[in-house]
Design a protein that fits this description.
Layout lengths: L3 H9 L4 E5 L10 E4 L1 H7 L9 H8 L3 H21 L4 E8 L5 E11 L2 E11 L3
Organism: Bowmanella pacifica
Protein name: PAS domain-containing protein
Length: 128
């Protein structure tokens, strides 16, 4: 589990954030370890709604065709980040909130500093 300091840091962020576990064995379906209060306030989901990457993708990308588009774009962004030596991935996507509304977010993902087994994912709303 994430350290207490990481939990406190994530909870204090003024934007939605989550932390997932990243290991070689969980590359395909990372378990979600925590979401901050701002995440629940804006997107509506709590940790139990999205216990892993698979659940997340099913809920926020309910249209299978759009889900495939985002998945492919994410893979391309991962490849590009690796080639450029970047530690983060950035992608602008439409997310379906728990209330069924759709909003556009910039999603930023990177390893947690000093904790390589954890991924931090931050969400910046782009919808006016």
């Amino acid at each position: 589990m994430p350290t207490d300091a990481l939990r406190e840091f994530i909870q204090c962020l003024p934007l939605p954030a989550l932390v997932a576990k990243h290991t070689k064995h969980s590359r395909v379906n990372h378990p979600t370890l925590l979401v901050n209060q701002q995440f629940s306030n804006e997107l509506g989901y709590v940790h139990s709604d999205i216990p892993d990457k698979h659940s997340w993708w099913q809920k926020v990308y309910p249209d299978p065709l759009y889900q495939q588009v985002v998945q492919r774009q994410w893979e391309l962004e991962e490849e590009l980040a690796e080639r450029e030596g970047r530690q983060f991935i950035r992608l602008d996507v439409n997310l379906t909130l728990k209330n069924g509304r759709e909003k556009r977010y910039r999603v930023l993902s990177s390893p947690c500093p000093g904790l390589p087994d954890y991924i931090q994912v931050l969400f910046i709303e782009l919808t006016p």
